[in-house]
Amino acid sequence: MHPENAKAPGAMSGELPPLELLRSFEAAARRLSFTLAAGELHLTQSAVSRQIQQLEASLGVLLFERRHRALALTEAGGVLQRAVTDSLERLRDATARVRASSAPRQVAITTTPGFASIWLIPKLARFTGSHPQVDVRVSATLDVLDLESSRIDLAVRFAPIGRGIGPALFEESVIPLCSPQLAASLRQLSDFSKLTLLTVEYPDHSEAPTADWEPWLKVMGLEDLRMKSTLHFTQYADAVAAAVAGQGVVIGRLPLLSELVRDGRLVAPLGEGAASHRGYFIEMSRRAAGNRDAQDFAQWLRDEAEAAQRS
Fold first, then answer.
1. The 3-state secondary structure of the chain, one letter per residue
2. pTM of the full structure
3. 270-285 per-position pLDDT tens digit
C-alpha cells in the first residue's frame, strides 16, 4: 500500500506526529539525503528511512520523491518542511531563553588579599543588597591570575602608575599610621625610632623587606632610619591589624585605610603622606563583555571609590 493511500490510526485525528519523526524529517529535508541525516542524528540510514515512511503513513501523503540516488521534496513535503523548521527554531530559541533565565548569575573577581579584606569585603554588602540574584566569587591572591583561563570577569590590580591595565580605581599615597594610644607617645620625629616597624615581606623576595615604607622614607629624608624592632608579615591586612592593636607603626596606604583613619582606629602622627606612584586598576576580561552583572560590578567599584574619596 502506498503511503498516500494509508489511513493509519490518528491520520485524520489532527494529532501531532512524534517529535523524533519530525526531527528526522527536518534533517532529511534539509540534507535531501537519508544517509546524511542519519549521520547527523547518530542513527542508521535504515532507521531514518523507516521513520520517514512512518511519518508519511501517519499523514497519508508522500513527503519525498525517491529518485535514483537522490531525494526531492514533494509539494506536501515542502509545506511540512517550512512548518517544522520554523517550529524547531522557535523551540530552540525558547529553550535557550529558559536555560539563560535559570542559569546562575555570577561575577568572578580576583584581587590582592589586602584590597579584598580591607577595602572590598566591608563594602560588598552594598552590591549584594542591590543585586540579590548575583553570586560574587572573590579570589584573593598575590598571584596574577589569567582572567580568561581562570574564567574570571575582572581583576583589581595593584600596579605602578603608567603600567596599570584598565581604568584607575584610585591612586595611592602612603603615610605612617598607628593606634591613638601609640601616637600619644610621639612628641617629635626622633621618637619615631623608638617604635616597632610593621612591614610586609613579598613572597618572591623581589622587593626589600621595607619596600612598602620606601616612598615615605625617601620624601621625609629618612632612608637610614632604624626602628627599635621590626615585625614582618606576609599579608598587609595582618600588619594593619597589628597597628590597630597598638603593636607598632604600619605604612598606611590611602585611600585603602581611609575608613580606619576616619573612625579613629588609626591616626597619622607624623603629618602628610607621600605619593607612592602606584594605584589600583580595574582590568576586565573578554568574557565580561557578555556579563551585564560584571559590568555593573565594575561600575559599582568606581562609584564606591569616588564616594570614599569625597567623604
1. CCHHHCCCCCCCCCCCCCHHHHHHHHHHHHHCCHHHHHHHHCCCHHHHHHHHHHHHHHHCCCCEEEECCEEEECHHHHHHHHHHHHHHHHHHHHHHHHHHHHCCEEEEEEECHHHHHHHHHHHHHHHHHHCCCEEEEEEECCCCCCCCCCCCCEEEEEEECCCCCCCEEEEEEEEEEECHHHHCCCCCHHHHHHCEEEEECCCCCCCCCCCCCHHHHHHHCCCCCCCCEEEEECCHHHHHHHHHCCCCEEEEEECCCHHHHHCCCCECCCCCCEEEEEEEEEEECHHHHHCHHHHHHHHHHHHHHHHHHHC
2. 0.62
3. 777 788 888 999 999 9
